[in-house]
Amino acid sequence: MNEKLRRYLSLFISTFKISAFTFGGGFVIIPLMRKQFVHNLKWIDDEEMLDLTAIAQSSPGAIAVNASILIGYKVAGIPGALISILGTVLPPFIIISVISHFYIAFRDNRYVSLLMAGMLIGVAAVIADLVISMAWDILKKKRMLQISMLVLSFILVEFLNLNIIILILIAGLVGYLDYLMQRRGKNDLS
């Protein structure tokens, strides 16, 4: 099997497994993708994962699918994006199809309800881990602009109820201006 096909197969299997064993929404999939694609396969680095996560979160649609598309595209171009979409959406499609077939039995089952309630605890822990690890990545860079934006964003959303779309637009503008200033600084040094 040539290298390209091996990469496609690995991409499909990775996204399929991650999606099949992820419960609780899109943010839960990010740490698993990070572990697989950054640490295990080493196809992308931590900073790229952080950037792809930010793009996936701010794009319309499900964050898990958006992140899969971006990682697949980064790793293997358009075929990689298509393969990763298939790997990501196939498990929930299969699971939902089975559950809908047995919905009446599941709906009133006490043990299934308890199992789902228990999963919520695990989901909360995974999301907390994601937030801490991503914040830690930002703090390690020691860039005051990013740290200030992190704290200010939390305050604006949590305490002042700023619309998240406005915050994303402002953060995007600040990030773009920061990029331009850094690029101009590098050109001045040349």
Describe it.
With 190 residues, the protein is mostly helical. It is built from 8 helices and no strands. The N and C termini lie far apart (46 Å). The mean pLDDT is 86.
Topology summary:
Layout: H1 3-20, H2 26-40, H3 46-58, H4 63-101, H5 103-107, H6 110-141, H7 144-158, H8 164-189
Helix pairs in contact: 1-2, 1-4, 2-4, 2-6, 3-4, 7-8
Oligomeric grouping of the chains = single chain
Query: What is the end-to-end distance?
Result: 46 Å
H/E series: HHHHHHHH
Overall mean confidence score, pLDDT: 86
Briefly characterize the structure.
It is built from 8 helices and no strands.
Features:
86% helix; mainly alpha; 190 residues
